[in-house]
Amino acid sequence: MAPKVLAVRDLRKQYGATVAVDGVSFDVNRNEIVGLLGPNGAGKTTTINMILGVLEPTSGTILVDNLDLATKRSQVLERTNFAAVYAPLPGNLTVVQNLRFFGLIYSVNDLSARVETLLEQFDLLAFRHVKCGVLSSGEQTRVSLAKAMLNRPALLLLDEPTASLDPAIAREIRMKIREYAALAGVGVLWTSHNMYEVEDVCDRVLFLSHGRILLEGDPRTLPAAHGKESLEELFIAVANHPEPV
Amino acid sequence: MFSLRRTSAIVLRQFYLMQGSPARVVPLFAWVALDMVTWGFITKYLNAVSGSGFNFVPSLLGAVLLWDFFVRVMQGVTTTFFEDVWSRNFLNIFATPLSISEYVSGMVLSSIATSSIGLVVMLVLATAAFGLSFFFYGVLLVPYLLVLFLFGISLGIIGCGIVLRLGPASEWFIWPIPALISPFAGVFYPLSTLPGWMRFLSRLLPPSYVFESMRSIVQKRPGSPFALLWGAALDVVFLLLASWFFRSIYRHAVRTGLIARYSAESLS
User: Fold this and answer.
1) Tens-of-pLDDT digits for all 268 residues of chain B?
2) Which residues does residue A217 pair with via DSSP β-bridges, in sequence order?
């Protein structure tokens, strides 16, 4: 089994004169949670959209399990899944209907059993026949996360997955994702503005600013290595002075 | 590789949406039934007052039925696509292994299911209440339906491409498309009625060959067998153009980030 789940090389996205992502290269290994950090507009979501195949890079390559997204799109996306706070599941379908719909698209084997497991895992049994549109934002996030794990992805992309959750549920969700990454040999790319969460969850972080990776390292040791008290302080320093710290 | 399972997900989603949703189920048969009743009585009235012995039922009511079938096929495709527009589901659905050909096939299969319901309702009403016999058209009914079906699919796919390119509000460009085409297709009158420039455009539209052929049968005139074949050939051209158009728009949307922004609009 290849240690690298995701290999991004010289990834660039340019809109006219604006460079959103400027030659980014990084890897995500199995059993590893990598935090993609940076101020608003740094290029985090653009990078994730390119890895999800919904945005074509201007140049560069994206390999998932050594498969090139540009040429093996379906095979790559069968191994990938995501949850993002700005992409709730259709509100006019119930929780179970949404999971079955996406389960079919991801060609999940023994779909009914998988759906039941996820309903239980994400504490959604009581909402199984409730339309997603009437769920609270926290419940909707749990449904999105259940969808993200339907196909047991090798690569899980999470764009601010706990943004709308209260601290207790957020902690529980973090624990579930950590367990999932450890047990299933999954690589996770995680964006968040919550530095406490990043320190708690991520094995490694990448600081992105103006479309470039400025820093990379262990979130627990990186601040001290750059003369800062905390990850939040380091984040603010990177956001205010987007040059290598 | 093309996956029938992924394609079936689109059909299943439409089924789920229709369960317990009268707003989606009623239009499948209510408007076509209303059309049949209205035009059924109009044709009865025309038969009574014309005194010419000409039977308006197969020419007018039959034309309305076939035209409604075409409209339902087109709307079956566009409505399936609009469900993703309305629920702002583009990012979720296009970030999956589902390919564009699987997605479009799902829309077509959904359209077959929904337009079949409308067709059955129309056939039952037109036959039982107004005496329209489809034996009148003989085996030609099959190519009639096929030519209209393929054209409905093509226009539906083009409509989806327009909405993908121009944004959710542009769906209002799509609903009136059949009404815009209708005068050129000669649904109710021979193409010879039209001025030259309109006739030229009519010749480019597959449905016009269906309605001309249908009128030939009603008037017991021998129709050209090649005319319908020409209509079917035009259908193939339209289908290829529609597929190319949608694929190009999709590629543009992926290149420019339009798909991601479609979803991000939900934040505003």
Assistant:
1) 899 999 999 999 999 999 979 999 999 999 999 999 999 999 999 988 987 777 888 889 999 999 999 999 999 999 999 999 999 999 999 999 999 999 999 999 999 999 999 999 999 999 999 988 877 788 888 999 999 999 999 999 999 999 999 999 999 999 999 999 999 999 999 999 999 999 999 999 999 999 999 988 888 787 777 899 999 999 999 999 999 999 999 999 999 998 887 754 433 3
2) A205
Listing DSSP states for chain A in one string gives: --SEEEEEEEEEEEETTEEEEEEEEEEEETTEEEEEE--TTSSHHHHHHHHTTSS--SEEEEEETTEETTT-HHHHHHTEEEEETT-PPPTTSBHHHHHHHHHHHTT-TTHHHHHHHHHHHTT-GGGTTSBGGGS-HHHHHHHHHHHHHTT--SEEEEESTTTTS-HHHHHHHHHHHHHHHHHHT-EEEEE-S-HHHHHHH-SEEEEEETTEEEEEE-TTTHHHHTT-SSHHHHHHHHHHS-S--
B244–chain A nearest CA distance, Å: 19
Nearest CB partner across the interface for A55, out of B88, B93, B254 = B254
Nearest Cα residue in chain B from A147:
B92
> What are all long-range contacts of A227-230, with beta carbons under 8 Å and residues at least 24 apart?
A230/A195
Taking alpha carbons only, the member of A172, A130, A176 closest to residue A149 is: A176
- CA gap A67, A79 in Å, rounded: 10
The amino acid occupying position A1 is M
- CA–CA dist B77, B73 (Å, integer): 7
Q: Is B101 on the interface with A (CB under 8 A)?
A: no
Interface mutation target, options A104, A107, A144, chain B, most CBs of B under 10 Å? A104
Residue B266 is predicted with a pLDDT of 37
Residue A168 class from Cβ within 10 Å (0-12 exposed, 13-18 middle, 19+ buried)? Answer: exposed
Residue B92 in contact with partner chain A when CB distance is under 8 A: yes
Would you list the domain boundaries of chain A? Answer: 16-79+153-245, 90-151
Locate the chain A residue with the closest alpha carbon to B96: A77
What confidence score (pLDDT) does residue B56 get?
Answer: 84
CB pairs under 8 A between A and B: 95
Chain A: closest CA distance from residue B84 (Å):
8
CB contact under 8 A, A87 and B13: no
- Non-local (6+) Cβ contacts of B187 within 8 A are B63, B64, B67, B207, B211
List the structure tokens of B42: 């109009």
pTM of this prediction? 0.92
Q: Structural domain tally of chain B? A: 1
Decide if domain A16-79+153-245 falls under CATH 3.40.50.300: yes
